[in-house]
Amino acid sequence: MDLLLARGCGRPPRYSSAGTGVSVDLFGEHFRDAAKAAQAGADYLELASALPPAPADAWLSIDLSHLAVQHDPAGAAQTLAAVAAALPPGRRIQVGAEEAEVTDAVLGCVIEVASRGLADRLGATVQANLLRSPGDVDKLISAGVHIRLVKGAYLERTGALAHGEPTDVAFLRLAHQLAAAGASWSMATHDGRLREAVHLALGPVPVEQLHGVRPEILDDLRARGIPTRVYLPYGPDWFRYWLRRVAESRGA
User: Fold this and answer.
1) d(CA 146, CA 125)
2) Domains and CATH numbers, the chain
3) Cα–Cα distance between 76 and 106 in angstroms, integer?
4) What is the tens place of the pLDDT at every residue in 176-199?
5) Cβ distance 94 to 61 under 8 Å?
6) How many other C-beta atoms lie within 10 A of the C-beta of residue 93?
7) What is the pTM of this model?
8) Which has fewest Cβ within 10 Å: 8, 40, 50, 92?
9) Dihedrals φ, ψ of 21, to 5°?
10) How far is CA 38 from CA 44, 77, 103, 129, in A?
11) How far apart are CA 34 and CA 222, in angstroms?
12) Is the dihedral of CA 40, 102, 241, 92 positive or negative?
Protein backbone atom coordinates (compact mmCIF):
# COMPACT_ATOMS: atom_id res chain seq x y z
CA MET A 1 0.00 0.00 0.00
CA ASP A 2 2.99 2.35 0.33
CA LEU A 3 2.90 3.23 -3.39
CA LEU A 4 -0.77 4.13 -3.14
CA LEU A 5 -0.05 6.40 -0.19
CA ALA A 6 2.81 8.06 -2.06
CA ARG A 7 0.46 8.88 -4.92
CA GLY A 8 -1.99 10.54 -2.58
CA CYS A 9 -4.59 7.78 -2.77
CA GLY A 10 -4.73 7.26 0.97
CA ARG A 11 -5.56 4.02 2.69
CA PRO A 12 -8.70 2.07 1.85
CA PRO A 13 -11.34 2.74 4.52
CA ARG A 14 -11.72 0.14 7.23
CA TYR A 15 -15.00 -1.54 7.89
CA SER A 16 -15.26 -3.68 10.99
CA SER A 17 -18.93 -4.66 11.17
CA ALA A 18 -18.78 -8.35 12.03
CA GLY A 19 -20.12 -10.63 9.37
CA THR A 20 -20.34 -8.02 6.60
CA GLY A 21 -18.21 -8.34 3.50
CA VAL A 22 -16.67 -5.34 1.76
CA SER A 23 -16.04 -4.32 -1.83
CA VAL A 24 -13.16 -1.83 -2.04
CA ASP A 25 -12.94 0.65 -4.92
CA LEU A 26 -10.05 2.99 -5.71
CA PHE A 27 -12.64 5.21 -7.31
CA GLY A 28 -12.15 6.73 -10.73
CA GLU A 29 -13.97 6.93 -14.05
CA HIS A 30 -13.93 8.38 -17.58
CA PHE A 31 -10.19 8.15 -18.13
CA ARG A 32 -9.05 8.86 -21.69
CA ASP A 33 -5.30 9.01 -21.16
CA ALA A 34 -3.52 5.67 -21.67
CA ALA A 35 -0.80 6.46 -19.14
CA LYS A 36 -3.32 7.32 -16.43
CA ALA A 37 -5.32 4.19 -17.19
CA ALA A 38 -2.16 2.10 -16.96
CA GLN A 39 -1.33 3.65 -13.61
CA ALA A 40 -4.84 2.88 -12.36
CA GLY A 41 -4.33 -0.73 -13.41
CA ALA A 42 -1.02 -0.90 -11.56
CA ASP A 43 -2.67 0.53 -8.44
CA TYR A 44 -5.41 -2.11 -8.65
CA LEU A 45 -2.82 -4.87 -8.93
CA GLU A 46 -1.20 -3.61 -5.76
CA LEU A 47 -4.57 -3.31 -4.08
CA ALA A 48 -5.35 -6.94 -4.98
CA SER A 49 -2.16 -8.06 -3.26
CA ALA A 50 -3.05 -6.01 -0.16
CA LEU A 51 -6.44 -7.65 0.47
CA PRO A 52 -6.62 -9.18 3.95
CA PRO A 53 -6.58 -12.97 4.24
CA ALA A 54 -9.57 -15.12 5.18
CA PRO A 55 -11.77 -15.06 7.16
CA ALA A 56 -12.04 -11.41 6.07
CA ASP A 57 -14.46 -11.19 3.12
CA ALA A 58 -12.97 -8.51 0.87
CA TRP A 59 -13.59 -8.00 -2.84
CA LEU A 60 -12.56 -5.24 -5.25
CA SER A 61 -14.82 -2.95 -7.31
CA ILE A 62 -13.99 -0.96 -10.42
CA ASP A 63 -15.61 1.15 -13.13
CA LEU A 64 -13.99 0.12 -16.40
CA SER A 65 -13.94 3.67 -17.74
CA HIS A 66 -11.24 4.10 -15.06
CA LEU A 67 -9.21 1.82 -17.36
CA ALA A 68 -10.27 3.79 -20.48
CA VAL A 69 -12.35 0.90 -21.79
CA GLN A 70 -14.04 3.00 -24.49
CA HIS A 71 -10.71 4.20 -25.86
CA ASP A 72 -8.62 1.05 -25.45
CA PRO A 73 -10.89 -1.98 -24.92
CA ALA A 74 -8.07 -4.47 -25.46
CA GLY A 75 -5.90 -2.72 -22.88
CA ALA A 76 -8.76 -2.55 -20.38
CA ALA A 77 -9.45 -6.27 -20.84
CA GLN A 78 -5.78 -7.11 -20.33
CA THR A 79 -5.66 -5.10 -17.10
CA LEU A 80 -8.93 -6.52 -15.78
CA ALA A 81 -7.66 -10.04 -16.48
CA ALA A 82 -4.38 -9.33 -14.70
CA VAL A 83 -6.14 -8.00 -11.60
CA ALA A 84 -8.61 -10.89 -11.54
CA ALA A 85 -5.76 -13.40 -11.84
CA ALA A 86 -3.89 -11.67 -8.98
CA LEU A 87 -6.79 -11.99 -6.55
CA PRO A 88 -6.55 -14.54 -3.75
CA PRO A 89 -8.83 -17.57 -4.15
CA GLY A 90 -12.47 -16.84 -3.37
CA ARG A 91 -12.21 -13.12 -4.14
CA ARG A 92 -13.86 -11.18 -6.97
CA ILE A 93 -13.51 -7.89 -8.77
CA GLN A 94 -16.94 -6.42 -9.34
CA VAL A 95 -17.36 -4.25 -12.42
CA GLY A 96 -19.69 -1.32 -11.83
CA ALA A 97 -22.56 0.03 -13.89
CA GLU A 98 -22.01 3.14 -15.97
CA GLU A 99 -24.06 5.13 -18.47
CA ALA A 100 -25.88 3.13 -21.14
CA GLU A 101 -23.49 4.39 -23.83
CA VAL A 102 -20.66 2.55 -22.03
CA THR A 103 -22.57 -0.68 -21.39
CA ASP A 104 -21.56 -2.50 -24.59
CA ALA A 105 -17.88 -1.84 -23.95
CA VAL A 106 -18.10 -2.74 -20.26
CA LEU A 107 -20.04 -6.00 -20.61
CA GLY A 108 -18.04 -6.99 -23.69
CA CYS A 109 -14.86 -6.60 -21.66
CA VAL A 110 -16.23 -8.65 -18.75
CA ILE A 111 -17.40 -11.49 -20.99
CA GLU A 112 -14.11 -11.55 -22.91
CA VAL A 113 -12.08 -11.74 -19.68
CA ALA A 114 -14.41 -14.41 -18.29
CA SER A 115 -13.63 -16.54 -21.34
CA ARG A 116 -9.99 -16.66 -20.22
CA GLY A 117 -10.92 -18.97 -17.33
CA LEU A 118 -11.46 -16.11 -14.87
CA ALA A 119 -15.26 -16.14 -14.62
CA ASP A 120 -15.25 -17.19 -10.97
CA ARG A 121 -13.24 -14.06 -10.11
CA LEU A 122 -15.48 -11.60 -11.94
CA GLY A 123 -18.73 -9.81 -11.21
CA ALA A 124 -20.81 -7.56 -13.44
CA THR A 125 -23.51 -5.03 -12.60
CA VAL A 126 -26.88 -5.07 -14.38
CA GLN A 127 -29.19 -2.05 -14.29
CA ALA A 128 -32.90 -2.91 -14.12
CA ASN A 129 -33.99 0.31 -15.80
CA LEU A 130 -32.22 -0.52 -19.08
CA LEU A 131 -34.42 -2.18 -21.68
CA ARG A 132 -31.51 -4.35 -22.80
CA SER A 133 -30.90 -5.91 -19.37
CA PRO A 134 -32.83 -9.21 -19.75
CA GLY A 135 -30.63 -10.09 -22.72
CA ASP A 136 -27.51 -8.95 -20.87
CA VAL A 137 -28.44 -11.18 -17.93
CA ASP A 138 -28.64 -14.21 -20.24
CA LYS A 139 -25.20 -13.44 -21.70
CA LEU A 140 -23.60 -12.95 -18.29
CA ILE A 141 -25.16 -16.13 -16.91
CA SER A 142 -23.76 -18.04 -19.90
CA ALA A 143 -20.35 -16.49 -19.20
CA GLY A 144 -20.52 -17.72 -15.59
CA VAL A 145 -19.87 -14.40 -13.84
CA HIS A 146 -21.50 -13.17 -10.64
CA ILE A 147 -24.25 -10.60 -11.26
CA ARG A 148 -25.02 -7.60 -9.07
CA LEU A 149 -28.55 -6.31 -9.73
CA VAL A 150 -29.23 -2.60 -9.24
CA LYS A 151 -32.09 -0.31 -10.20
CA GLY A 152 -29.92 2.01 -12.28
CA ALA A 153 -29.73 5.69 -11.44
CA TYR A 154 -28.36 7.38 -14.55
CA LEU A 155 -30.70 9.67 -16.46
CA GLU A 156 -30.58 8.04 -19.88
CA ARG A 157 -31.74 9.70 -23.09
CA THR A 158 -33.03 6.48 -24.68
CA GLY A 159 -33.32 2.78 -23.99
CA ALA A 160 -34.39 3.07 -20.38
CA LEU A 161 -37.53 2.79 -18.27
CA ALA A 162 -38.81 5.61 -16.11
CA HIS A 163 -37.79 5.64 -12.46
CA GLY A 164 -40.39 4.39 -10.03
CA GLU A 165 -42.84 1.57 -10.69
CA PRO A 166 -41.61 0.60 -14.20
CA THR A 167 -38.04 0.12 -12.95
CA ASP A 168 -39.20 -1.62 -9.78
CA VAL A 169 -41.21 -4.14 -11.80
CA ALA A 170 -38.23 -4.71 -14.10
CA PHE A 171 -36.00 -5.27 -11.06
CA LEU A 172 -38.36 -7.97 -9.74
CA ARG A 173 -38.58 -9.66 -13.14
CA LEU A 174 -34.80 -9.74 -13.45
CA ALA A 175 -34.50 -11.13 -9.91
CA HIS A 176 -36.80 -13.99 -10.86
CA GLN A 177 -34.89 -14.51 -14.12
CA LEU A 178 -31.63 -14.81 -12.19
CA ALA A 179 -33.11 -17.14 -9.59
CA ALA A 180 -34.75 -19.38 -12.20
CA ALA A 181 -31.41 -19.75 -13.98
CA GLY A 182 -29.57 -20.66 -10.77
CA ALA A 183 -27.21 -17.74 -11.26
CA SER A 184 -24.71 -16.44 -8.72
CA TRP A 185 -26.10 -13.01 -7.89
CA SER A 186 -26.83 -10.34 -5.32
CA MET A 187 -28.99 -7.24 -5.18
CA ALA A 188 -27.69 -3.78 -4.38
CA THR A 189 -30.56 -1.57 -3.25
CA HIS A 190 -31.61 0.56 -0.30
CA ASP A 191 -35.27 0.19 -1.26
CA GLY A 192 -36.65 -1.80 1.66
CA ARG A 193 -39.92 -2.71 -0.01
CA LEU A 194 -38.18 -4.05 -3.09
CA ARG A 195 -35.62 -5.91 -1.00
CA GLU A 196 -38.29 -7.57 1.13
CA ALA A 197 -40.33 -8.54 -1.94
CA VAL A 198 -37.30 -10.35 -3.34
CA HIS A 199 -36.55 -12.09 -0.05
CA LEU A 200 -40.15 -13.21 0.45
CA ALA A 201 -40.26 -14.68 -3.05
CA LEU A 202 -36.72 -15.98 -3.50
CA GLY A 203 -35.16 -16.48 -0.08
CA PRO A 204 -31.95 -15.02 1.43
CA VAL A 205 -30.49 -13.31 -1.65
CA PRO A 206 -27.26 -11.44 -0.66
CA VAL A 207 -27.65 -7.67 -0.22
CA GLU A 208 -25.11 -4.96 -0.98
CA GLN A 209 -25.26 -1.39 0.32
CA LEU A 210 -23.26 1.81 0.15
CA HIS A 211 -21.04 2.66 3.09
CA GLY A 212 -22.83 4.90 5.59
CA VAL A 213 -26.36 4.55 4.18
CA ARG A 214 -28.76 3.04 6.73
CA PRO A 215 -26.11 0.76 8.30
CA GLU A 216 -28.62 -0.50 10.87
CA ILE A 217 -30.29 -2.47 8.07
CA LEU A 218 -27.19 -4.65 7.83
CA ASP A 219 -27.60 -5.86 11.42
CA ASP A 220 -31.19 -6.87 10.76
CA LEU A 221 -30.31 -8.69 7.56
CA ARG A 222 -27.44 -10.61 9.13
CA ALA A 223 -29.65 -11.61 12.07
CA ARG A 224 -31.98 -13.17 9.49
CA GLY A 225 -29.14 -15.13 7.88
CA ILE A 226 -28.87 -12.90 4.80
CA PRO A 227 -25.31 -12.26 3.52
CA THR A 228 -24.35 -8.58 3.32
CA ARG A 229 -21.62 -6.52 1.66
CA VAL A 230 -20.69 -2.83 1.82
CA TYR A 231 -19.20 -0.80 -1.03
CA LEU A 232 -16.16 1.21 0.18
CA PRO A 233 -14.77 3.79 -2.27
CA TYR A 234 -11.66 5.82 -1.54
CA GLY A 235 -8.92 7.77 -3.30
CA PRO A 236 -8.22 11.23 -4.73
CA ASP A 237 -11.34 11.25 -6.94
CA TRP A 238 -13.67 11.26 -3.93
CA PHE A 239 -15.28 14.55 -5.02
CA ARG A 240 -16.31 13.08 -8.38
CA TYR A 241 -17.80 10.14 -6.48
CA TRP A 242 -19.76 12.53 -4.25
CA LEU A 243 -21.10 14.43 -7.26
CA ARG A 244 -22.12 11.14 -8.86
CA ARG A 245 -24.12 10.12 -5.81
CA VAL A 246 -25.83 13.51 -5.67
CA ALA A 247 -26.83 13.18 -9.33
CA GLU A 248 -28.09 9.63 -8.79
CA SER A 249 -30.14 10.59 -5.74
CA ARG A 250 -31.92 13.29 -7.73
CA GLY A 251 -32.75 10.79 -10.44
CA ALA A 252 -33.96 8.02 -8.14
Assistant:
1) 9
2) 2-251 (3.20.20.220)
3) 9
4) 999 999 999 999 999 999 999 999
5) yes
6) 25
7) 0.89
8) 8
9) -75, 170
10) 10, 12, 21, 32
11) 42
12) negative
